[in-house]
Write a structure and sequence with these properties.
The chain has 494 residues and is mainly alpha-helical. The chain has one domain. It has a two-stranded antiparallel ribbon. Strand 1 and strand 2 form a beta hairpin. Helix 13 packs parallel to helix 15.
Length: 494
């Protein structure tokens, strides 16, 4: 216990708190800009975290993740344009309130609900991660391979509007993950004589390309008039602050929505958008005045934002405990952990317990920091909503180039980022989800290693995955979930 307190105390430094604050500020800023997401922000800023210690760099990225989920509510309220997909339900009631001159109180309700939901999921993460990691230590390579198969199946089946496109996206990710040297024989695979990918495709350049460069290309498609015209926004001046009684009135809604967001977020492939709409629907069904939903209900905002932000901590549960990222954001964060020498999985808490206690402490402190920034800087964030896209596009592209270069001080990585930008652009235009690709890429090396270890131990018997009870259960569940997804949704886009 003394070791725990020492680790926590060592983590609370001025430098660490500043980095968390900068991360939260960057996240809210990105979330407040319509069309930009936390995934893109984390991907672009990941390389800068490599120059920091783990106790500074990781909380910086986690702060971005936190802040962006709340930041998406600001344009939802002010201009009826969600900054993130997860904030779409917030606009249902936030914008009608803004039209009534209550934009300030609507954003404050979103802020308080987001902070409480995020805090709840962080506590669950801290309580659950260590015991789950201890259980995972009992798994062998056979069980780990089957678990990864199940995770990939869930993510591919539920992400996007087409099961087929989700599976194809996963396949592309696996193929990218196989580029480089065989982990057993050392033989080159799919390198085509390109020297800088002999050790595999660089994670950071690929992520920057898929999420950031592709976003630049998407935004560049807009007409110059659209890029140069700032959106009309509701004014915060003169609006009233949220009354404490109004917050107390929705306490049960916030608690229920926090639980829903945490439960849904802990399931790989679900994400904040699903949690938000489930929570909103249940809140409306159980409300005393359901007719107010969609016309300016503070309860509707509370339900959406508490569930939305509760996913921030929850999707790290499978990531840290099992090494299986639950979302695209979690996959990028997992890559950041690995770059810092912290490999997510059951051994993480044994080998780096002190560091993880410090990171969890800063994760919790990020919530009051977000609350303080939201209270004091809301007018600034509201002005960010009006920034012209024509100014943002070249700035984002500059960060992409710089981030790609500083990864290994190589211009080849910049070329790689631009290449994957074209790949991401093409996939997005064809409505392919990117999350299965990224997560499959991240998991391919571990899955291949576990599979080959299992085959070596079983003398090459592939049926070993079906004869061991735990792995057989995971495989059966994977097949069942895929079958249900195909039954519920068509192979083609809806």
């Amino acid at each position: 216990m003394e070791q725990v307190f020492n680790a926590i105390w060592a983590a609370i430094t001025l430098q660490a708190l500043v980095m968390v604050s900068l991360g939260v500020f960057a996240g809210i800023t990105v979330g407040a800009i319509p069309g930009l997401t936390s995934v893109m922000a984390i991907a672009v800023l990941v390389p800068f975290s490599f120059f920091m210690t783990p106790i500074n760099g990781i909380p910086f990225l986690l702060g971005i993740h936190k802040g962006a989920l709340f930041g998406g509510s600001i344009p939802s309220v002010l201009i009826n344009t969600p900054g993130t997909a997860a904030a779409a339900a917030t606009s249902f009631d936030g914008y009608p309130l803004a039209q009534k001159g209550e934009a300030k109180s609507a954003i404050q309700m979103a802020l308080y609900s987001s902070t409480l939901g995020d805090s709840f999921s962080d506590i669950v993460l801290i309580v659950a991660a260590f015991p789950l990691a201890a259980v995972a230590l009992l798994f062998g390579p056979t069980e780990f391979f089957a678990l990864m198969v199940m995770g990939l199946t869930i993510i591919s089946a539920v992400t996007g509007s087409s099961v087929l496109k989700g599976l194809l996206s996963m396949l592309i990710g696996i193929l990218i993950g196989l580029i480089g040297q065989d982990i057993i024989s050392g033989a080159e695979r799919f390198t085509f004589g390109i020297g800088n990918i002999m050790d595999g495709v660089g994670t950071v350049p690929m992520l920057i390309g898929l999420f950031a460069v592709s976003e630049v290309l998407i935004q560049s498609e807009k007409k110059l008039s659209e890029l140069s015209t700032p959106p009309e926004t509701a004014h915060l001046k003169g609006g009233r602050s949220l009354d404490l009684k109004e917050l107390v009135n929705v306490k049960w809604t916030i608690m229920r929505s926090s639980f829903i967001g945490t439960a849904v977020g802990a399931i790989p492939g679900t994400g904040a958008a699903i949690a938000t709409f489930i929570s909103y629907a249940l809140a409306k069904r159980g409300a005393k005045r359901p007719e107010e939903f969609g016309k300016g209900s503070y309860e509707g905002i509370a339900a959406a934002e508490a569930a939305n932000s509760a996913v921030a901590g929850a999707d790290l549960i499978p990531t840290l405990a099992f090494g299986i990222p639950g979302s695209a954001s979690a996959a990028i964060l997992m890559g950041a952990f690995m770059a810092q020498g912290l490999r997510p999985g059951p051994n993480l808490f044994q080998e780096h317990a002190a560091t993880m206690y410090g990171i969890f402490t800063l994760l919790l402190l990020g919530n009051p920091i977000m609350l303080l920034q939201g209270k004091l800087l809301t007018p600034l964030f509201a002005r960010i909503v009006t920034i012209r896209q024509s100014l943002l596009v070249p700035i984002i592209l500059l960060f992409c180039v710089v981030g790609g270069f500083i990864y290994q001080n190589s211009i080849e990585d910049v070329k790689l980022a631009l290449f994957f930008g074209l790949v991401g652009y093409g996939l997005r235009k064809l409505n392919f989800p990117l999350a299965p690709l990224v997560i499959a890429y991240i998991l391919t090396a571990s899955a291949e290693e576990s599979m080959k270890q299992a085959l070596v131990l079983s003398d090459g018997d592939f049926f070993v995955f079906l004869t061991r009870p735990i792995s057989a259960f995971f495989i059966f569940l994977s097949v069942a979930l895929l079958g249900m997804a195909v039954w519920k949704r068509p192979w083609a886009d809806n």
